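Researcher: Checking consistency across runs. Here is EF-hand domain-containing protein again:
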Amino acid sequence: MGAEESTIPERLNSSQIQALASKTKYSKDEIEKYYHKFITEYPSGKISKETFYEAYHELHPEAKSHQDAAMFKKFDINNSGDIDFREFMVALKANSATLKLLINKDDIYQEHWTKTKVRNQDAAKF
């Protein structure tokens, strides 16, 4: 992803932040933090269907292909075939674990690894 050149602004303007804040109830700082992570991970400013499907199946390996398609369609509000930052934030407000994985990959893997390690240590005590 680092080879792609960014096509979206480095920062949101105040009216964009205000609109997102009113729609999502996230603070200005939270929106800016998510935006920075989003454009770092997705310099094109969009999450493709394929990338979304991969993340969805990492979290829900038992899911059928129609389930990931239905979830993507729900988040792709303007039916563009991609999820842009505004759509991402609106869906994130709904607390979607899939979208959190897309933007916080390292944090989620670390949390999973820590929980697994603790469970394994607890199991070893018996």
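Researcher: Does this match what you'd expect to see?
Model: One thing to look at in this run: Confidence is low (pLDDT under 50) at residues 1-6, 108-126.
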